[in-house]
Amino acid sequence: MALSAQVAWWFLPFLVPLCLYVAYTDLARMRITNPTVLTMAAVFVVVGFFLYPFDGYLWQLAQLGIVLVVCMILNAAGAMGAGDAKFLAAAAPYVALGDVRLLMALFAAVLLAAYAAHRIARATPLRNMAPTWDSWSTKGRKFPMGFALGPTLAIYLALAAVHGS
């Protein structure tokens, strides 16, 4: 993996709770909140400054802006939700450019598992454990992507902490 194990270990304690919170809020309210993604970005701005050489830090930070612009366009086109776009932008600086293909494969696996788990839970008595969650609604076909996006970033950082360069 291109991401340094040391860098991943520093980010893990900050990001895992935020990623789990993103999954929870998207399941419960179909929302990824602004304070959460702003906190993710702030963690990178502060902690990342000490972990990367200055030019590397700026390139990682530039990924946030690039992904934000692309995701805003996709959101305007109706291809993704605004919360998903904000989360992807805030998560972008944490991903090493050399790991993008790995991250895409990881996301595909997590998305399939999350979708299957969500649909099974929604169609069974498991749904009664959280009967007020907005994502259970069968009126629409929307899926809470934060349920897949949050764990993907957390798993990526955990993998990098163990197998990173």
From TrEMBL:
**Enzyme class of the recorded protein, top EC level:** hydrolase
Enzyme Commission identifier(s): 3.4.23.43
InterPro entries cross-referenced by the UniProt entry: Prepilin_IV_endopep_pep
Top-level taxon of origin: Bacteria
Q: Which Gene3D superfamilies match?
A: 1.20.120.1220
Which Pfam families does the entry link to? Peptidase_A24
Transmembrane regions listed in the UniProt entry: 7-24, 36-54, 61-82, 102-121, 142-162
* Residue ranges of every copy of the Prepilin type IV endopeptidase peptidase domain listed in the record: 14-114
> What are the recorded GO MF terms, alphabetically?
aspartic-type endopeptidase activity
Q: Any idea which UniProt keywords this protein has?
A: Hydrolase, Membrane, Transmembrane, Transmembrane helix
Keyword Acetylation recorded: no
- This chain belongs to the protein called Prepilin peptidase
